Every structure is written in C-alpha cells, then in structure tokens.
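Box S1 | Example of a co-folding query
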Amino acid sequence: MQMTSADLLICGGKVVTPQSVVEANVAIKDGTIIAVGSDGAMPQARETLDASGLYVLPGAIDVHVHFRDPGYPHKEDFASGTAAAAFGGVTTVFDMPNTIPPAGTAEALAAKHRIAAEKAHVDFGLYGLLGEDTIAHVPALVAAGVIGFKLYMGNTFGRIPCPSTGAMLEAFEVVAPTGKRISLHAETNSIMERREARLRGAGRLDPLAHLASRPAVVAVEAVSRAALLAEWTGARIHILHISSAEELRPLREAKARGVDITGETCPHYIMLSSEDYARFAGTIRVNPPVREKRNQEPLWQALADGTIDLIATDHAPHSPEEKTRNDIWTVDCGFPGVETQMPLMLTEANAGRFGICDYVRWSAANPARIFGLYPRKGVVAPGSDADITVVDLARELTIEDAALQSRSKITPWNGRRVKGLPIHTLVRGRFVMRNRALLPHTRGWGRSVHAIQKMPPARVRNADGTMQAIVRLREHAA
Ligand code: NCD
Ligand code: ZN
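Box S1 (continued) | Returned holo structure for N-carbamoyl-L-aspartate
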C-alpha cells in the first residue's frame, strides 16, 4: 500500500487518551496527525523522534491565563507568557481580558489579536470582557473573534467594575443566543468589600486577613446566583478557579438540573492550603484565596467524579516587588502557573493519586470539548492538530522561580520537587520546545483558535422576556 510520506514520526512512545495508554507511533504531516499505530501502519517520514520510554500526550489547553499584553509588560507579554506555556507542555491558552485597555470593544480585541499573532509561540484564544458597559459590544466582539466571554462578579487584579445582578442577567440574555461560553470570576463583591473594609479598619495587614475577607460563602453565593441566571437564560457558563468544597454543591445541583455549567480548579487549591501563608506571605495572595486544608480532598474527589471538569492555572504574573509588600492589601493578587501545572499534576499522578488518562481528560480533552475545539484539539488521534507534549514521567526537577520562562519570577512553588516533565512540545506539528529548550524561531507561530471553534447550537430560554424583547414590545405598542 502506498501512503503519503509524513513530516515527522514520533516513535515508540506511549500514546495517552482519556480511555487508554497504547504503545504507538504518531505520524504528522502539514501540522495534522495522519496516523497513530504500530510500525507497519506508519508511512515514511522525513524526520523521526525517538520517544521510547516516554508518554505522548495531547498538549494541555489552559483556558485561564493572564498574559498582560497590552498593558503590563514588566509582568508578562504574549511572547514570555507563551514561552512559559511551551515549557509547560501547554499548546493552547485562553487569555483573559483584564489588560489595558480591557478587551471589551472590537477595537481593543483586534489590537490584542495583532499582538498575540505577532508574538505567540503557542495557539491562543482571546476572551472578550462582559461587563455592565460592554453588553452592547457583544455582537461586535463575537464578530472580532472571541473564544468566549469573561465576567467579573467580584473585584480582582485590574479593578474591572463588577456588573450588578440586573446587568448580569441582561449580559447572559445577550450572550446566550451566540452559543459562546461565559467564564465567571465567581466571588460576590459586596460581601468581600465589606469584610475587607472592616478588617482594614481593625488594623489587620497580615496575609491571612486576605483569606478572612473572602470566606467560601463569597464564592458559594456567586456560583449559585450565576447558575440561576444561566438556567433562566440558557447561557453557557464556566466557573473559574473553584477553591472551596462548599462551591461543589451549587455546581452539582446545577449540573443535575441540566444547566450548561462547567468548572475548573487550579493546582494551588488542591496542593496548597492556609498552612502555607506563614511561609509564603504575599506571594500566596490570589483570588479566590488558597483555603483551609479540608477543602483539598473534596476538590480532588470532584475532579475524579466529573463535577469539576478541568484543570486550568489562572497564570497571573506580577513582579517580586508587587508580591512582597508588607501590607497584604497592597500586594497584587495571583502568581504564574502555566509552566508548572503539568509537572505538579504529573507528580501527583506518579504518586498514584490518579491515572495519566484522567490527567489528559482534565488538561486537554475536556477543555477542548467545553470550548468547542474537540476533536481538532485535545486528543492525539488521526485528523487532529498535532498539538503534542512528550513527557518523561521519571524525570525530576526542583522548581526554581529564577529558572521560569515567565517574567514573573515569584511563586509559591519555588523549591518544590516534581517528578514528571514535558520534554518536547509541538504546536501543529512544529517543535516549540525541544529537549527542554525553546526553539528560537517559533515566535509568531501561534494562531487564534476562534476560527476553528464549533460550539453546539444555542439553547436560549425565556427569550420572550429578555430586556431586548420587552423593550421591542413597548416600541410596537407605541
Ligand atoms: C488575576 C490577575 O492577576 O489578573 N489574579 C488573581 O488573583 N487570580 C485575576 C483573577 O483571575 O482573578
Ligand atoms: Zn479570577
């Protein structure tokens, strides 16, 4: 049988899907996987990569990163952020809109598309900002190519104003028919602002005061309210950075009612706890806060049973100076994570907490499905983009902030021992990292994935009562 020849053969590795681990070769041509199988089933190839003893995973899809471009080049930009992604085995990132200016108009989004296309080493999607003042921009933002929308229910870095519940309902009504998913920073502003003011008044400046200002009820109230509005309107939502055991109840209940709601957690909520505040001080300050240790096990269980769908990082880089101020209220929230997620999670897989198949479900297959990119992305299979990370589960490393690709060289992972590292990363068939070194000419190789996104048809509810519908009725009557 005559077969077309491939550009690259990845030979002898163990190919991981959510269902199985199979010893198989992978043939790649023109950026696409054309065959997965045994030696005899492989075409000729120009180049061969020996992956014996290694695991061949779909590249991770991190649906929650802040690359700060444009606006905060001292913290990160699209080049440094996507270099960090490549190092972390992450082949697609979705960037958040809290930049300067925020990605809340078609013009701002277009400018960001130009920046990302020029600098990105890996593929990307851009969120549009859904706020009180951007509802009217939704159609133009969709036309300009968003991967989804981001709505801040609570204040966090960038001080994006939080919409009222009334504006939120209208925002959901407007996005629902577009079929796009709305990712939510689900913390209720009025609760935490009140508590923070009281704590400040009482002279609390210590790191744990941050946690005290944002108890889990802040998130539980927000998740519950968002789920009700999603159910009413039929809007699809995604709960970002789930940090507490208590949020799982409204999430489970909404899923059981058939609401199109998904959720993510991040390594810091399942691997760090309030016991780490003394050691890391401001470095650990993040929204929502890292919580009491008792939350960890329920979050792991929620990943295992599918209540939480995926792992993201909330990669939120800041400078060391911005992270080490003595007054906790002046410390910028967040820390980088796009580069350390995979080694941290593979370490837990190595320790037997879950299987490698579970990992690719959380890191690649589920994010691709939830955002309409599957099976083009998120799986190593014929016809899919050759977005691949080749990992060595036996390779160990001590994470050192100074060695990170990110411009932000300060994390609570510093000094942590990991076992299981991405060795090579390919984006659409091209090496962006090889033998743990960034390839020099891959800047600008990354592409926006909005063009290949296929969300299922929208399922709008209560359309006759939306703000648009009732105002139109009034116009007809006049
Ligand atoms: C994020 C940031 O720095 O942009 N910070 C954070 O603490 N998580 C914003 C966010 O996701 O809330
Ligand atoms: Zn957030």
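The chain has 15 helices and 17 strands. The mean pLDDT is 97.
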